[in-house]
């Protein structure tokens, strides 16, 4: 927890210095508290489509993300988990490439090396790698957005979920609400942060840094409808070419959760990649939870009143 | 032994731990939940006793609202200093969002604290006036009416505060509490019992055994209600608690709730006003243990 020198009162006093004229007859500092700009006109809804079947785990996206967003890059600690030394999405890692190795336990080579590339390619596969470049899912109905008590979390004109760190008070309710484990509080500032969808680049007509840096085209970004079409075509292609396990995650609504504006083509079950199989919108239970509380309150109050009278 | 996550057929390394991130839910948040429930439960009991109870409770009202204010001020301080950027607390007062339990809570708590603050201020102002030069004599009726009005408003605010805290935990994606559908019921029942506990202690300090005697029956019934609510809650939380806590820890929590806070506190109530006060102290101690246990189930594994 770090106490920042600048706070809302300083901001207001800067915006409305003493002696400045009243605005529309209202006392200026109070007006400043409630002043809102008109939201930007809605643009085409944009989405990330990450095709894990062609990801090579090069981590260019991680590097590009850090570079563009000027995020600190501390020396990675060896995790012992394949090449994944980043380990998780965090306030320092808005992108995270996951590595899943699958090999026989006794993996010794007990035959001569293939004599040429054709023989090598013809060899039976003895293991596989799965890679996934993970990020904020920019949920179309995002629990972090619903849980934020300050309005610091907003949906931008491109349909992305954007954290205004100049408003965030660091309560952590967005962290508690997110079923994917995305946001985190930056201990240096005390504010919650996560992937900003490179909102600044989008407003300048550029694609997000991670998409631009992706060496294989595994991360794609564009109008959601176009991305959905691409994803469906790709999964169909993979099914037709011997990969029945290929599946889409977040392209369509879940049973208890909205679809995502960052969806994935996975080559195994979502849980293998550390994704919840069936995420649940936390507010789904809210009416009944309040009702249980109110019912208990009425019962207990009736007991107290009944015994005191 | 370390899992061989690279061996075909094994769980992947991402399946071996919780997916969600955990906010900084440590001592401050436990004490916030504790004091929040304590002050709101106490204010609800104070309001009900004042409106429906015999005259003993009217005499205790000024002290009761003063204690409620003291507890809510400490709670607000904890709530604010639990934030990553405490000076931005006012940002939560710029908007009101019903989908955010914390937003509902902040507004409820702020309204409640303001009203109880005004009630306390007005009462003690009248008191000082009456015991000095009587400088407020022409306005005493208005002050009395305003004090009563603010007590009623504070009571209404406390009704909101007592309900939101459980929702703030249960309507998240945090393992354990996200499945605890009876958490809100438990927190309300426990808050009411703790409110009775604080009232008994206050009445004992102010030497008002008649008021304590009146609190015996509701205390007995709410001890049973709390045990039932905790049982329902533990049905939801047990699977997670077995992963986050040791068997001994879980055993002692249940021992505290059912034996110490249940059987022993229940028995104490029959000893007389002193016993009811002891039962109140036990309810407060057990309330803290319960909240540490509930928050512990969200520990990341």
Quick one: overall form of chain B? flat
Q: Within the largest sheet of chain A, what's the order of strands?
A: 8-1-10-9
Would you list the SSEs of chain A in sequence order as H and E? Answer: HHEHEHEHEEHEEHHEHEEH
Quote the distance from N terminus to C terminus of chain B. Answer: 16 Å
N-to-C terminal Cα separation of chain A, in Å? Answer: 49 Å
Note the beta-strand portion of chain A: 5-15%
Number of spatially distinct domains of chain A: 1
Structural class designation of chain B? mainly alpha
Full CATH superfamily name of chain B: Formate dehydrogenase/DMSO reductase domain
**Tally of separate helices of chain B:** 8
Portion of residues in helices of chain B? over 70%
Largest sheet of chain A: 4 strands, mixed
Number of helices of chain A: 10
User: Percent helix among the residues of chain A?
Assistant: 25-40%
At the fold tier of CATH, the topology name of chain A is Alpha-Beta Plaits
Low-confidence stretches of chain A: 1-6
Structural Rg of chain A: 25 Å
The radius of gyration computed from the alpha-carbon positions of chain B, rounded to a whole number of angstroms, is 22 Å
Question: How many strands in all of chain A?
Answer: 10
Arithmetic mean of pLDDT of chain B: 94
Write the layout of secondary structure elements.
The complex is a heterodimer of chains A (309) and B (301).
Chain A: H1 8-15, H2 28-34, E1 46-51, H3 60-69, E2 96-102, H4 117-122, E3 128-134, H5 143-147, E4 153-155, E5 161-163, H6 173-177, E6 184-186, E7 191-193, H7 199-203, H8 209-213, E8 219-223, H9 224-240, E9 247-249, E10 262-266, H10 286-308
Parallel strand pairs in A: 1-10
Antiparallel strand pairs in A: 1-8, 2-3, 4-5, 6-7, 9-10
Chain B: H1 27-52, H2 55-81, H3 101-130, H4 140-170, H5 183-205, H6 209-244, H7 247-268, H8 273-296
Helix pairs in contact in B: 1-2, 1-4, 1-5, 1-8, 2-3, 3-4, 4-5, 5-6, 5-8, 6-7, 6-8, 7-8
């Amino acid at each position: 927890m770090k106490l920042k020198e600048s706070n809302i009162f300083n901001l207001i006093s800067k915006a409305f210095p003493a002696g400045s004229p009243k605005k529309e007859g209202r006392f200026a500092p109070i007006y400043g508290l409630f002043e809102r700009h008109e939201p930007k006109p809605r643009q085409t809804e944009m989405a990330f489509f990450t095709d894990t079947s062609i990801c090579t785990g090069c981590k260019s996206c991680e590097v590009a993300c850090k570079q563009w967003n000027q995020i600190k890059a501390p020396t990675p600690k060896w995790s012992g988990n394949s090449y994944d030394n980043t380990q998780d999405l965090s306030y320092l890692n808005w992108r995270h490439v996951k590595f899943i190795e699958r090999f026989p336990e006794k993996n010794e080579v007990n035959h001569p090396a293939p004599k040429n590339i054709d023989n090598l390619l013809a060899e039976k596969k003895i293991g596989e790698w799965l890679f996934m470049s993970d990020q904020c899912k920019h949920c179309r109905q995002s629990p972090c957005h619903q849980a934020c008590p300050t309005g610091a979390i907003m949906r931008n004109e491109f349909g992305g979920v954007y954290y205004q760190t100049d408003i965030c008070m660091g309560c952590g309710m967005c962290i508690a609400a997110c079923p994917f484990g995305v946001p985190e509080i930056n201990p240096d500032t005390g504010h919650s942060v996560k992937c900003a969808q490179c909102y600044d680049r989008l407003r300048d007509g550029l694609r997000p840094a991670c998409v631009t840096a992706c060496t294989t085209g595994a991360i794609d970004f564009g109008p959601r409808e176009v991305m959905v079409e691409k994803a469906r075509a790709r999964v169909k292609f993979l099914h037709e070419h011997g990969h029945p396990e290929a599946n889409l995650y977040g392209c369509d609504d879940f049973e208890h959760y909205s679809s995502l504006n960052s969806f994935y083509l996975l080559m195994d079950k979502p849980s293998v990649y550390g994704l919840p199989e069936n995420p649940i919108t936390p507010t789904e239970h809210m009416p009944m939870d309040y009702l249980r509380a109110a019912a208990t309150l009425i019962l207990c109050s009736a007991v107290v009143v009944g015994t005191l009278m | 032994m370390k899992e061989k996550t690279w061996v075909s057929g094994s769980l992947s390394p991402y399946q071996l731990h919780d997916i969600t991130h955990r906010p900084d839910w440590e001592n401050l948040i436990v004490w916030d939940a504790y004091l929040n429930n304590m002050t709101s439960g106490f204010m609800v009991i104070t309001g009900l006793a004042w409106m429906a109870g015999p005259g003993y409770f009217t005499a205790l009202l000024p002290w009761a609202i003063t204690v409620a204010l003291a507890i809510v001020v400490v709670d607000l301080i904890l709530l604010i200093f639990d934030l990553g950027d405490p000076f931005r607390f006012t940002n939560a007062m710029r908007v009101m969002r019903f989908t955010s339990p914390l937003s509902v809570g902040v507004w409820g708590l702020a309204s409640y604290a303001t009203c109880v603050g005004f009630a306390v201020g007005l009462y003690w102002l009248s008191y000082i006036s009456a015991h000095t030069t009587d400088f407020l004599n022409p306005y005493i009726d208005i002050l009395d009416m305003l004090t009563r009005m603010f007590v009623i408003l504070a009571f209404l605010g406390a009704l909101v505060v007592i309900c939101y805290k459980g929702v703030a935990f249960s309507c998240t994606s945090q393992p354990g509490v996200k499945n605890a559908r009876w958490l809100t019921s438990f927190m309300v029942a426990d808050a009411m019992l703790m409110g009775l506990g604080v009232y008994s202690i206050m009445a004992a300090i102010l030497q008002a055994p008649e008021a304590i005697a009146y609190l015996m029956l509701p205390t007995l019934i709410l001890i049973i209600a709390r045990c039932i609510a905790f049982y329902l809650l533990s049905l939801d939380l047990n699977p997670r608690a077995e992963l986050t806590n040791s068997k001994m820890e879980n055993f002692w929590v249940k021992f505290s709730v059912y034996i110490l806070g249940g059987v022993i506190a229940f028995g104490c109530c029959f000893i007389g006003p002193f016993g009811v006060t002891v039962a109140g102290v036990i309810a407060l101690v057990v309330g803290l243990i319960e909240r540490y246990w509930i928050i512990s189930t969200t520990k990341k594994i």
